[in-house]
Amino acid sequence: MPQQPAQPLLEIDRLTRVFLSRQGLSVTRLEAVDDASLTLEAGKPEIYALAGESGSGKTTLARMVLGLERPTQGTLNYKGRPVGDLTPKDKRTWFYREVQPVFQDPFATFSPMKRVDSYLYETARNYRVAEGAAIEKRIDEALGVVGLTLAEVRGRYPNELSGGQAQRISIARALITRPSLLVADEPVSMLDASLRMSILNLFKDLRDSQGVAVLYITHDLATAYYTADRIGVMLRGWIVETGPVERVLGNPLHPYTQLLKSSVPQADPDKAWSAAPAEPPRPVKFPVSGGCKFAARCPYVMDRCRQEIPGSYEAEGRHVKCFLYEPGFSGVRPTAEAVP
Ligand SMILES: Nc1ncnc2c1ncn2[C@@H]1O[C@H](COP(=O)(O)OP(=O)(O)OP(=O)(O)O)[C@@H](O)[C@H]1O
């Protein structure tokens, strides 16, 4: 499928995914992803971390990018083509070669009864990446990128692999089709701290040497800071702050990002930031009331925050979904140091 040169690699504009659940006569509505926008440019491979606490909508957004979940509203284009309009044939012959998932638990993707190399052969055959002996060469190349060889992997069962080796093989499987985008949902959260860095370094290497962009989904700010070029911080379906990772985490502007950062245990960067007292998304009964989703807990809340939804305003080299950064705001803005 020819690529249109001027199109972004991934364009997400005001994307929303609503889940409705019925209990008796009442319907509850949960905006798992709500009005989220982000763009990954073509030809500039980067690692974009989508960070947020459990239930903030990261996986739902990732599943929409992978074409596994249909958006309720908004734009989701890959190389200029709406993902929701792709036919099963488009997906098989183009999209699934271009966009590959990397999952949290590599052992869950491999059956204990099957040799791991069989997954590599299956992927190569299913996507017709090569014929005959060239298949082995392609598999060996993909394994080479993650620091392994087919000779090392051949004939081995999952229980003969370490967690790090299993995750490397699952990344090699994803690379067989030479994708342009990896969607990696918590790819290191099941690994020992000592192995985490090697996998995160591998993503950086893939970006630099293979030109692969990575959407890195994580609940862990420390690994996002270490790995990503840019970050989007999610709160109950919204992306509340997005920009270069050094700016957003070095000097967070949104009161929620400030709260998250202040809750990271500084002495132990490997710890997840579970201490943040954020709310999980709550299903709401119709009608839905407006206002900022952080208003009830924001130390800087203003009257309008309870009634109006803030826009996403450009401030200090990033976008912030908060009235404090609306052009013309004349009050005092919080600083990261002043977080209560
Ligand atoms: N198929 C579904 N039906 C109904 N609700 C769903 C469905 N999938 C996700 N949700 C809800 O949407 C919200 C966002 O879930 P999601 O898994 O995207 O969050 P997350 O940030 O990835 O969390 P975690 O890190 O725990 O996976 C949650 O409240 C979840 O219960």
UniProtKB/TrEMBL annotation:
It comes from Devosia geojensis. PANTHER family: ABC-TYPE DIPEPTIDE/OLIGOPEPTIDE TRANSPORT SYSTEM, ATPASE COMPONENT, OLIGOPEPTIDE ABC TRANSPORTER, ATP-BINDING PROTEIN. This is Peptide ABC transporter ATP-binding protein. It is found in: Cell inner membrane. Belongs to the ABC transporter superfamily. GO terms for molecular function: ATP binding; ATP hydrolysis activity. It is a peripheral membrane protein. GO terms for biological process: peptide transport. GO terms for cellular component: plasma membrane. Keywords: ATP-binding, Nucleotide-binding, Transport. Pfam families: ABC_tran, oligo_HPY. Signal peptide: none annotated. Residues 10-261 form the ABC transporter domain. SUPFAM superfamilies: P-loop containing nucleoside triphosphate hydrolases (SSF52540). The lineage of its organism: Bacteria, Pseudomonadati, Pseudomonadota, Alphaproteobacteria, Hyphomicrobiales. InterPro entries: AAA+_ATPase, ABC_transporter-like_ATP-bd, ABC_transporter-like_CS, Oligopep_ABC_C, P-loop_NTPase. The keyword Lipid metabolism does not apply. Its main location: membrane.
